[in-house]
Design goal:
alpha/beta, nine-stranded mixed sheet, six-stranded parallel sheet, 15 strands, globular
């Protein structure tokens, strides 16, 4: 690639450029930090309708080109309409339709050596087809394999089997796997070495997910913050917090059960999109509604408010055990001083010595909560300084986006 050439990069797999989830936030930050980079031009697939779609008409800074295209952060964004009747298959349809559109744009605009970067392993049975098509157009296929989607408890056995096979096929038919966790990179080689194209080993690199290291813009006496605390019955530094998807593999059952066993006088605030079926299952098992400290407080989409709620938490619980570098963990380490994490490789890789760890053995977390309640202010401040340094050194968005620029411009 010549030093004055523009590298066209197509991003496929996120719903939009926004804050709906990990990939959406990642693309938002990548395009924001690279918007003035004259050597990289991004083309981003976005959902035109349905859950998590982006309305450019209501997005500050978006420049409308047509009813299907707009510019945001200097990235060329194209909308994909999805039939809602498809149900869970929408995600597969979306990725396939987005890749078809990528190929059309590359062909019609005669773009040289494009990179098509696919996020998550949803379309394995079609991977070979698009790999060959993109290569025929002079391009390369990069993949972010995400975490262990096939291990998630929410999927039935046949769907888990599909995810595993899909992952295997997508790793095989890609030119580079960009893993957001060292543990995921090790897993890819352990499972798929010798199973790539022509029996070759998959080519991988590690680039983590990013996080903010700044403080929230909200003041301690901001009416929005005080109103939220009053509505939820909470007080600053008098609650433990968890933020995340309400799914079994995030270990809500263990965290709630152990908190109920603890002697803590603080509250346990749970920010999540409640799944009524799972909530009913937990209530039947734990009877947590009888414990006034356990508070399901709904969702918070205002990012400055959420950051402030994290900063004001006494401690943060993280129970994720499936996946790579988890965005909510990075955000907690960047904001909350005291972090209590499930002792698994992914979490230890990220936090290292800046957090304390618990396991799922009976009484382990409850005992840790009681010890945490007795920690001095100085001990907690020291933990917070370590956590923020860890984020700044290895996970700041500037650092992550610089690494991506290196990979794309090789």
């Amino acid at each position: 690639m010549q030093s004055n050439e523009v590298q066209h990069v197509f991003l496929v797999g996120a719903k939009s450029l926004g804050t709906y989830g990990g990939y959406e936030t990642f693309i938002n930050k990548l395009t924001e930090y690279h918007q003035n980079n004259e050597r990289i031009k991004y083309h981003v697939a976005c959902k035109a309708n349905g859950d998590g779609c982006m309305d450019p008409n209501n997005t500050e800074g978006a420049e409308i080109i047509s009813d299907r295209e707009f510019i945001y952060h200097n990235a060329h964004c194209f909308s994909i309409h999805i039939p809602q009747k498809l149900g869970p298959a929408q995600a597969i349809y979306y990725d396939i339709a987005a890749l078809k559109e990528c190929c059309r744009i590359i062909r019609e605009q005669k773009l040289p050596h494009p990179i098509v970067y696919i996020m998550a392993c949803r379309i394995g049975p079609f991977a070979k087809h698009f790999y060959k098509k993109i290569h025929k157009l002079g391009g390369k296929v990069y993949l972010n394999p995400d975490g262990h989607e096939w291990m998630r408890a929410k999927w039935s056995a046949p769907i888990r089997k599909y995810w595993k096979i899909s992952e295997q096929m997508m790793v095989k038919w890609s030119d580079l796997d960009i893993c957001d966790s060292v543990n995921i990179e090790k897993y890819i080689h352990k499972c798929y070495d010798g199973k790539g194209i022509k029996g070759q080993n998959p080519k991988t690199t590690f680039i983590a997910y990013g996080a903010e290291t700044r403080k929230s813009n909200l003041a301690d006496d901001d009416p929005k913050l005080l109103g939220w605390y009053k509505e939820k019955g909470l007080s600053p530094k008098e609650y433990y917090l968890v933020v995340g998807r309400f799914v079994p593999e995030n270990n809500y059952e263990t965290m709630i059960k152990e908190f109920m066993k603890s002697n803590s006088k603080k509250d346990f605030a749970i920010i999540t999109n409640v799944n009524d079926k799972f909530l009913e299952e937990l209530e039947n098992k734990l009877h947590f509604k009888s414990d006034s400290r356990i508070k399901f407080v709904g969702t918070v989409y205002d990012q400055e408010l959420l950051m402030k709620i994290r900063e004001n938490a006494y401690g943060y619980f993280h129970g994720h055990e499936v996946g790579g570098t988890n965005p909510s963990l990075l955000e907690a380490l960047g904001s909350t001083d005291l972090n209590l994490l499930l002792d698994v490789g992914f979490n230890k890789e990220v936090a290292q010595g800046s957090a304390i760890y618990w396991n799922k053995n009976e009484g382990n977390l409850a005992g840790l909560i009681d010890k945490a309640d007795l920690m001095s202010d100085d001990e907690i401040i020291t933990m917070g300084e370590k956590a923020k340094k860890r984020i700044k050194d290895a996970y700041s968005w500037q650092y992550i986006c610089d690494r991506y620029a290196e990979v794309f411009l090789k």
